[in-house]
């Protein structure tokens, strides 16, 4: 499906002990032991609970899931919702029985995602200010905020923070010192990075990276 990536997680397998799920701007359709859940866009770290289980997920590129689900992203912000809350029961049963075929069928009935949303993600991920991104797209601030709420679950400034955090984590995981990580990722300084990590992940950066 365009704009989505299929993934799996097996108890004891690679990534099984990854722990916290950090904000990344994405939404997921999750399938495990007959349950179909939708993971909305996160604004803070999410700690999965329950016993180990096999999971299959369809991860949507930021801004693409709402058109497929038929629900604005902000209604699912920081939630894990049963798909039966969003779709008719018969459709959920059909999807449960034939997950891939039903998903493709629904995707065919949905128009392609607004290309401006992908361009917005690319611009913000490159570190450009929201106002600059809006000018490049030729849209106003009010339109951008309204479309961002529906597509991403939060406004463009929060999306920019989430993407900036992901840039910082990618740099820090390669061994870049925290001070350099902060500047290269677009933070004012290391203290600014530390504040954002605490707000979005709920712990210090060194703890988040495993005691580095």
Automatic annotation (TrEMBL):
Superkingdom, natural source: Bacteria
Pfam families (alphabetical): DUF6597, HTH_18
Domain named HTH araC/xylS-type: residues: 114-211
Originating organism: Streptomyces andamanensis
This protein's name: Helix-turn-helix domain-containing protein
Keyword annotations: DNA-binding, Transcription, Transcription regulation
Entries under InterPro entries matching the protein: AraC_XylS_family_regulators, DUF6597, HTH_AraC, HTH_AraC-typ_CS
PROSITE patterns hit by this protein: HTH_ARAC_FAMILY_1 (PS00041), HTH_ARAC_FAMILY_2 (PS01124)
């Amino acid at each position: 499906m365009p704009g989505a990536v299929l993934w799996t997680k097996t108890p004891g397998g690679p990534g099984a002990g990854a722990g916290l799920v950090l904000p990344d701007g994405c939404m997921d359709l999750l399938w495990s032991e007959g349950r179909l859940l939708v993971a909305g866009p996160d604004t803070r770290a999410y700690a999965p609970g329950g016993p180990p289980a096999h999971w299959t997920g369809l991860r949507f590129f930021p801004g693409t899931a709402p058109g497929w689900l038929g629900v604005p992203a902000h209604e699912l912000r920081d939630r894990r919702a049963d798909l039966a809350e969003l779709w008719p029961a018969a459709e959920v049963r059909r999807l449960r029985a034939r997950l891939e075929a039903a998903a493709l069928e629904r995707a065919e009935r949905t128009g392609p995602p607004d290309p401006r949303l992908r361009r917005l993600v690319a611009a913000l991920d490159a570190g450009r200010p929201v106002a600059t991104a809006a000018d490049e797209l030729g849209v106003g601030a009010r339109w951008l905020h309204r479309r961002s709420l529906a597509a991403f679950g939060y406004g463009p400034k929060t999306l920019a923070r989430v993407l900036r955090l992901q840039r910082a984590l990618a740099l820090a995981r390669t061994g870049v010192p925290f001070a350099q990580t902060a500047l290269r990722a677009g933070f004012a300084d290391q203290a600014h990075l530390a504040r954002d990590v605490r707000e979005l992940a709920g712990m210090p950066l060194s703890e988040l990276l495993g005691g580095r």
